[in-house]
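Hi R.,

Here's the chain you asked about this morning:
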Amino acid sequence: MGNLPRDRVVPDYPFNCSGVDFCGPFMIRYRNQRKGVLHKMYICIFVCFVSKAIHIEIVSDLTSEAFIATLKRFFGRRGKCAKLYSDNGKTFVGANQEIKGLLKLVKEPDETLSGFLSAEGIEWKFIPPRAPSFGGLWEAAVKSVKYHLKRIVGRSNLTYEEFLTVCIQIEGILNSRPLCPLSSSADDLNALTPAHFLIGRSMNSIIEPNLTDLSEGVLKRWQRVTRLVQLIWNKWHRSYLSELQQRNKWQFQKKNVKVGDLVVLIEDNMPTFKWPLGRVTKLYSGNDTLIRVVKVKAQSGEYKRAISRVCLLPMPV
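And the predicted structure, written out as tokens:
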């Protein structure tokens, strides 16, 4: 395995070097009317190279002016970045024409966009053609949420305000994901998250009842928005934990869980932003000497869990 690019390992401010990804189109109603006119919207996802933090912005159309406005909103909230990376258009084999048009806009900028980037001293780079592995920063967590966004929100025809609320809550969900233990102390049950780089602490959310089992027809307008966010959380949460397990499973030398490791407990129907963490206190081996069951100390007590129901967080290097 080769070394990571310098922009990925040198300490820097959040989003000073960022990757850009696109998703869409989504059909949006500007007024809360059943037969309101639908408009196309796109999502621009910025990924911090250093902290893996996520920032989501909405692009109203495929013009340079709209994309510049998107960059200005991003810079206004996260600070102006020095470098922007994006996938080469040829890696989007199955992308629709609208996304290809957005990629062409940034790959072959007109005078308006190129003049803005030059005046602001922003360097835009592309990964090599037909080499999506170079875009490893656009990890499964981001790709997965794009997939679930398209499947769940794509057919809902939300208003602009509802769509913006869903996108920002998804941004918070992505920034709440645990990356690695905060410390090696056995009493520390906290994990480092992208939110720590942005707000100095883990991300919290408003406690809301689970609406995923209810029919959309019995819910009020904003309850439907909450239900959409919960559906996306449930699907993305499972796929992210599955990715964590897979990452630790397929190694040349399989790494067993050991006492003191920080793990994520796999629980059903967890509320949004909630990641149950615990420290391994005892191991139970099978006849093959492999770990089959672990005892975990969590904030609410000690529990026994099958090894398949915990995800080991990678240690920082």
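The CA atoms of residues 53 and 197 lie 8 Å apart.

Let me know if you need anything else.
M.
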